[in-house]
Specification:
Layout (H helix, E strand, L loop, with lengths): L1 H39 L29 H15 L20 H18 L5
Amino acid sequence: MAETMTVGVVTTLVGMGVVFAVLIILSFTTWMLNKIVELIDKKPQNSAPATAERPIATVETTNQNTGIDAKVIAAIATAIAAVTGTPVGNLKFTAIQRVGSTPLPWAQASHAEIMNNRQRFTEGGNR
C-alpha cells in the first residue's frame, strides 16, 4: 500500500515538473521572439514622429446641426485617411449621414456565417 502511494506521488511530481518546465520554456521563447520582433521593427532614431508635429485630425464647425460629435467626425476622418493613405488635411467632409437601415452586403454575409456556424455546432446533440 505504501509502495503504491509512493509511486503515485513520484508520478504526480514528475508530471507536474514536466508541465512547468515546458511552460517556462514557452514563456522564455515568447519573450525572446518579442524582443527579436522589436529589434527588427525598430525605427531609426533620427526621424521624428509625424504625429507630434501636427494634430491627427481637425474638424471645422459648420452651420449645419448634424447631431454628430466632433470627436466622432475626427475619428471617421482619421480612419478614412489611414485606409486611403491621404493626409487628413486633404480630406473635406461635407456631410456624414447613415445611408440606410438595411445592413451592408458584407455585414449580411458575416451574420449568415455566424448563424451557420452556430447551427453546425448545435447539430447532433453537441450543445
